[in-house]
């Protein structure tokens, strides 16, 4: 089929139009009905479905003709409203989405603070799972905020929709009821899920029952249970906790990462030895195709990192962020919630393909004597320092990551509090075979928060000098060298090489009013 606009097939015409600016497309759309038919498909390849726009895609709305070309949909209610109106939007939209046969990206925002948000998500996805395009989704973004009790009454239709996601099939022949089976789209390549509560949300589970873990663990485990095998990027932001005493992924004696590259794991699962807990998860689903993972939580422990290493052996980029909270002792000190007497990240050496990594660097740690006391970080806590990273990787005979970044995250401002990173420099500067590293310190988004710097940071003493030289006092950039002798700093080295501009991966971006901040993905 050739088009009237260009003497080429329809599909090629759309590709040509897709390179035009939005202004040019809008100008073309007023030329004629035929031209408008083409430009509308490009203009509306991504749409936002909210109360003001849904009507345009329904019967007689004028945009029914472009539905087949829509690739990206965002579902959102722009302001706070009554629970019934909010649920009605999702009831309407889920029915409407059956027509969007080419959908590849879906974003759902639940920002009305309802305690029913997890039930709404289950009800929405139960309906969507029946559509032909569902398992073809490539990207899924789900965001919701802290909830509050909704005292407003619901209509019977609201309640029917609200509880449809956790309803069980009718019993027959004396057999017990079974939950209906549905879950994550199997073709997903990118997943971003964020909330602001310690709330478990799982597919195929009765939301009235208790879960065996918390947010981050359940999301990752459920992705595997639902047969998702094409993942390339996962981001989980939970401003509650990632794990608690019910954590069941691993036990201390199982914290060794699988170093084999052989394909001897059946269905990408690691079968763990039995333990004392009869209910322990016996299989851990792996995601070898995931190359980018971001976890942003309030609390994190060494065992969580071990689970990440086992589940995501192919990671090239890893970011783990922990927000600082105020100590409850009246001192006003900001604390990274570590529940170990030492901060140890050596499990990450199991990620052989890692290129970029961002990890939290604590200012305080909890004492290991059971007293609950929290002490200031000392040199012994930082044995896994920058020097340790580089030296240990080289002993393994593999290239260390190109960039290692350590952050402190401040709850009050939501941006970097203290920040330093080491970057592998390109080129052999003086021909002696050494590998050069640049250590950069002091990304000060909020200088007024650095009054504790002298007491918290003494990097000239903490970081071993034979590995990296750091000038904290001037917040400058200096270079050290790492070679076969791991030794001696070249004091005559020219420091004139400029530090190249570096994309900070979305950190420190401004918050949108009324929305949750998240890193912008490259489309």
From TrEMBL:
Residues 9-38 form the F-box domain. This is F-box domain-containing protein. Residues 490-503 have a biased composition (Acidic residues). It comes from Orbilia oligospora (Nematode-trapping fungus). Residues 481-523 are annotated as: Disordered. It comes from the Eukaryota. It holds the Pfam family F-box. Residues 514-523 have a biased composition (Basic and acidic residues).
């Amino acid at each position: 089929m050739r088009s009237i606009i260009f003497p080429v097939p329809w599909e090629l015409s759309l590709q040509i139009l897709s390179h035009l600016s939005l202004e040019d497309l809008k100008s073309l759309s007023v030329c004629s009905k035929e031209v408008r038919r083409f430009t509308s498909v490009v203009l509306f390849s991504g749409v936002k479905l909210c109360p003001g726009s849904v009507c345009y895609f329904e019967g007689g709305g004028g945009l029914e003709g472009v539905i087949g070309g829509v690739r990206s949909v965002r579902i959102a209610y722009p302001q706070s409203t009554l629970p019934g109106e909010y649920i009605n939007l999702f009831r309407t939209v889920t029915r409407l989405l059956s027509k969007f046969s080419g959908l590849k990206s879906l974003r759902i925002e639940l920002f009305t603070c309802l305690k029913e948000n997890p039930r709404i998500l289950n009800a929405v996805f139960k309906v969507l799972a029946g559509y032909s395009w569902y398992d073809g989704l490539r990207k899924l973004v789900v965001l919701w905020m802290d909830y509050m009790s909704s005292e407003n009454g619901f209509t019977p239709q609201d309640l029917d929709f609200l509880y449809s996601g956790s309803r069980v099939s009718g019993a027959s022949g004396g057999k017990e009821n079974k939950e209906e089976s549905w879950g994550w789209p199997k073709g997903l390549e990118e997943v971003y899920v964020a909330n602001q509560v310690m709330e478990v949300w799982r597919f195929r589970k009765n939301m009235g029952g208790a879960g065996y873990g918390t947010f981050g663990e359940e999301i990752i485990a459920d992705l595997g249970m639902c047969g998702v095998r094409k993942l390339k990027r996962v981001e989980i932001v939970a401003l509650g906790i990632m794990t608690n005493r019910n954590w069941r992924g691993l036990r201390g004696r199982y914290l060794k990462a699988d170093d084999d590259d052989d394909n001897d794991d059946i269905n990408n699962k690691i079968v763990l030895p039995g333990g004392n807990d009869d209910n322990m998860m016996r299989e851990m689903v792996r995601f070898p195709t995931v190359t980018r993972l971001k976890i942003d939580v309030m609390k994190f422990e060494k065992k969580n990192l071990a689970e990440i290493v086992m589940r995501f052996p192919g990671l090239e980029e890893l970011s783990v962020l922990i927000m600082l909270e105020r100590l409850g002792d009246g001192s006003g000190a900001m604390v990274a919630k570590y529940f170990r007497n030492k901060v140890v990240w050596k499990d990450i050496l199991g990620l052989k393909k890692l290129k970029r990594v961002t990890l939290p660097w604590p200012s305080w740690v909890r004492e290991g004597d059971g007293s609950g006391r929290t002490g200031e970080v000392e040199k012994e806590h930082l044995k896994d320092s920058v020097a340790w990273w580089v030296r240990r990787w080289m002993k393994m005979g593999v290239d260390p990551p190109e960039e290692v970044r350590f952050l402190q995250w401040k709850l009050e401002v939501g941006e970097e509090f203290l920040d330093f990173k080491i970057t592998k420099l390109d080129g052999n500067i003086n021909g002696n075979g050494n590998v050069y590293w640049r250590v950069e310190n002091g990304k000060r988004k909020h200088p007024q928060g650095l009054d504790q710097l002298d007491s918290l940071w003494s990097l000239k003493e903490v970081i071993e000098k034979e590995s990296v030289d750091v000038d904290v006092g001037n917040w400058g950039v200096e270079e050290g060298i790492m070679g076969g002798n791991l030794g001696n700093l070249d004091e005559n080295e020219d420091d004139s090489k400029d530090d190249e501009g570096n994309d900070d991966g979305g950190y420190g971006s401004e918050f949108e009013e009324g929305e949750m901040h998240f890193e912008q993905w490259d489309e």
